[in-house]
Write a structure and sequence with these properties.
single chain; 254 residues; alpha/beta; seven-stranded mixed sheet; 9 helices; binds zinc ion
Length: 254
């Protein structure tokens, strides 16, 4: 798990150089991932599985956001995260209402909860015996929605996995199938690519008008899907301008 966080931190630094337009997002993400590494170490060493125990990390997170976050986040923290009781309520609310919480929670509240819940959920998932063969559109471990697809293998053997937006579990999912509505007609499932981001594509659905991006590891074996997904925010803007809504936002609410 620590190695996975180190990979994300290093990849964020690397991509910030390659894609200057996304550098500020990637730098913020990198700081968050460094913070998550400390949360993760704490969760692993304490063995604590009560989600409310994560509230002790709020002061450091609020401090980080004060230094590097947006005004929206800073204001939310000062208005809604003033004591342990409300912090615990936010954590338990987001954790217990998956995946519905995704759509309903206040985006800034969801941001704070997810920064803390991700390392917690990833740790629990790493200890569990989940099979990655589940064919459903939500995470077989934590029920959150996928934030991206991951493509591996070439030609006829190529396969798609979905990557959980919360615990980072990957599970196999048919390539020609919309995770938003179950559409199976490939004429309704357009794929968009652009020259600037060779290894990331937009998988869209013309039935429910949702999209997710897929990171193609056969085109870039160094890609770290959760980070490459953030670095290609230009594709989100393009997709949203064309009428599609993202099936699930990433940690930065994009
Ligand atoms: Zn999950
Ligand atoms: Zn659909």
């Amino acid at each position: 798990m620590n190695a996975r966080l180190d990979d994300r931190i290093a990849r964020a630094a690397e991509l910030a150089n390659i894609h200057p337009s996304a550098a500020s997002l990637l730098n913020f993400y990198r700081e968050l991932a460094q913070f998550q590494k400390r949360v993760s170490a704490d969760v692993q060493s304490s063995g604590e599985t009560d989600v409310r125990a994560l509230a002790r990390h709020f002061p450091a997170l609020i401090e980080l956001v004060g230094r590097s976050g947006t005004e929206l986040l800073v204001n939310f923290a000062s208005q809604h995260l003033g004591n342990t009781a409300v912090q615990e309520k936010l954590l338990t609310g987001c954790w217990e209402q998956l995946p519905a919480a995704s759509a309903e929670a206040d985006p800034p509240g969801r941001f704070f909860a997810r920064v803390l819940l991700q390392p917690y959920a990833e740790y629990l998932a790493s200890r569990s015996d989940i099979r990655s063969g589940g064919a459903g559109p939500i995470c077989p471990f934590c029920n959150a929605r996928p934030v991206a697809g991951v493509l591996r293998g070439e030609g006829e053997g190529a396969k798609r996995w979905l990557l959980c937006s919360l615990c980072f579990t990957e599970w196999q999912f048919r390539r020609v199938l919309c995770p938003g509505c179950g559409e199976e007609n490939k004429d309704k499932l357009p794929i968009y690519t652009c020259a600037e981001f060779e290894s990331v594509r937009v998988d869209a659905c013309d039935s429910c008008w949702t999209y997710l991006k897929s990171v193609d590891l056969t085109k870039d074996g160094h890609a770290v899907p959760v980070v490459d997904e953030i670095a290609t925010v230009a594709l989100n803007i393009w997709a949203e301008e064309h009428g599609y809504s993202k099936l699930e936002t990433n940690l930065l609410a994009m």
